[in-house]
Amino acid sequence: MNNIYEPKEQEKVMQARESFNGRLLTDAQFDEAMSITNIIEREIKKTGMFKEKLGDYAYAFSRSEKFDPMKSETIIRDLFKERCGQSMNKMREGFRDRANNLTNDQIDDALPHAKEIGKMIEQGNKISFNRAYAHQAQNLADKHHITDAHAKTIMQQTFKASEDTELYDWGKAQEKQFYTPQIEAEKQQRQTTRSQSHAPQRSR
Q1: pTM, entire model
Q2: Which of 49, 73, 86, 199 could crosslink 58 through cysteines, CB 3.0-4.6 Å?
């Protein structure tokens, strides 16, 4: 079993290893199954959904390890519950309930995160709108324990109400002004470097 987990989570991982389904797996199988639980957890935090990704990964796991697909899914679900302390569906419902009960102050907090996108693009080193948007959405989501997808929704809504323009359109304009020139300059530098490296050497 690998040691990629933080100390506070290591105890739960050990509990998962000693669970009924955990004991049935080899170390390699357990590590792979636990990695899948991490992927599923991130998907729930990102989108509030998990069934499609769970099905895909459970099927892939079952094929490589020659398990029945339903058994593979059961193993992953059980290990997820051991590691996270709740089922996938319970986690999903928690994100949904928190999104439905955000206070006005929490919703208003989305606006500065949305505006921070422009600063990231302008001041950062080759940061695109999509990258900055995802980063700020994740920051907001982590702060209020909602999904990234819902964070993006309230960022769009508060920005529209404040600036009377779509966040996407504004962000892409920022990208064109600051990010695109940086990328073009990098491309030009690469071409120059490539041309110099292929130039014939003069004999002395």
Answers
A1: 0.86
A2: 73
Question: In one letter, which amino acid is 201?
Answer: Q
Nearest C-alpha neighbor of 125 from the set 169, 183, 189: 183
Distance CA 60, CA 95 (A): 27
User: How many other β-carbons are positioned within 10 Å of the β-carbon of residue 53?
Assistant: 17
For residues 128 and 175, the answer to whether their CB atoms sit within 8 Å is yes
Q: Which DSSP letter does residue 96 get?
A: H
pLDDT digits (tens, 9 = 90+) for 59-77: 999 998 888 989 999 999 9
Q: What is the pLDDT of residues 5-62, one digit of tens each?
A: 666 778 899 999 999 999 999 999 999 999 999 999 999 999 999 999 999 999 999 9
What does the alpha-carbon distance between residue 105 and residue 108 come to, in Å, rounded to a whole number? 5
Nearest to 96 by CA among 51, 29, 52, 146: 146
Cα-to-chain-centroid distance, residue 127 = 17
